[in-house]
Write a structure and sequence with these properties.
By secondary structure, this protein is α/β, with parallel strands linked by helices. Helix 1 packs across helix 5. It contains ten helices and ten strands.
């Protein structure tokens, strides 16, 4: 089984590893950023897993590109797992539309609730809440792996709100795409606590950050993927967003995933 994943703060990678531990066959974890960079375009696996976080109520831009370029000619069972802060959306339908172009379908789907990492607006949760979320997430992942082991089709959506699913979040998703997340990609900067270590450049999954005179520079010609790895994985929390409360809203990553593992996705 091939699991294709994308993870900026480690929660989706941790979910993929947990899931793989419950699967009854050999599993390969394959980072999509690396595959796109290397120009690989297909998988020969019969079972496929698509693991991604929710970005602004939809698929991450990197995964949209991946599903547009990659093919699964031998796949007989395709599942997807999406980590989210709790917002009810229709990502299973979005993924299925891409698969239909290949004559495939999404057989199984699972949302897993993880801490909300969008600390440009929200406070990140305290450690007890993170540990509680991890406990519930592991149980959901275990049940989903058992479903996949049985080859059983089924879409697990969890909490739903049809008004938000069908109206509110599609509108917000469209606005985010049209405005570049309201110009978020041009709003990052490093404050005076920056030590020039270059870790932000290494974890930037879009390749947007380069170091210049020991300071990070966000290249305007490169599109941001909004993974927020630079923000959350800076060792001194020097990365900020203009006109936001990032200096006081905290930082978060999965405790079992290191910044080097995120950098290794490239």
């Amino acid at each position: 089984m091939d699991i294709f994943y994308y993870s900026g703060t480690g929660f989706t990678l941790a979910a993929a590893r947990t899931f793989a531990g419950y699967i009854d066959e050999e599993v390969r974890l394959r980072p999509i950023v690396q595959l796109l960079r290397e120009g690989r375009t297909s998988s020969g696996a019969e079972k496929i897993g698509l693991f991604m976080p929710m970005h602004a109520f939809g698929m991450p831009e990197a995964f949209i590109r991946f599903l547009g370029e990659f093919s699964f000619p031998h796949a007989s069972f395709i599942c997807a797992l999406v980590t989210r802060g709790g917002s009810p959306t229709r990502m299973h339908l979005e993924i299925d539309r891409f698969l239909e172009r290949q004559g495939k379908r999404l057989d199984a789907f699972q949302y897993v609730t993880t801490p909300n990492t969008f600390d440009i607006i929200f406070h990140v949760p305290e450690e007890p809440a993170v540990l509680e979320a991890q406990k519930h997430a592991e149980e959901d992942i275990k049940q989903f792996a058992r479903q996949v082991n049985r080859g059983e089709a089924g879409i697990r959506l969890g909490y739903r709100n049809r008004f938000h699913e069908n109206i509110t979040f599609p509108i917000l998703r469209g606005l985010n795409r049209m405005t570049g997340y309201f110009n978020l990609q041009n709003s990052f900067y490093a404050d005076d606590t920056c030590t020039g270590c270059g870790q932000c450049e290494q974890v930037c999954l879009s390749g947007k950050i380069r170091m210049e005179a020991r300071r990070p520079v966000w290249e305007k010609s490169v599109s941001c993927q909004y993974c927020l790895a630079c923000l959350h994985l800076c060792p001194v929390q020097a990365i900020q967003v203009k006109n936001s409360k990032t200096p006081v809203l905290g930082r978060i990553r999965h405790p079992d995933i290191s910044w080097k593992e995120i950098a290794g996705e490239k």
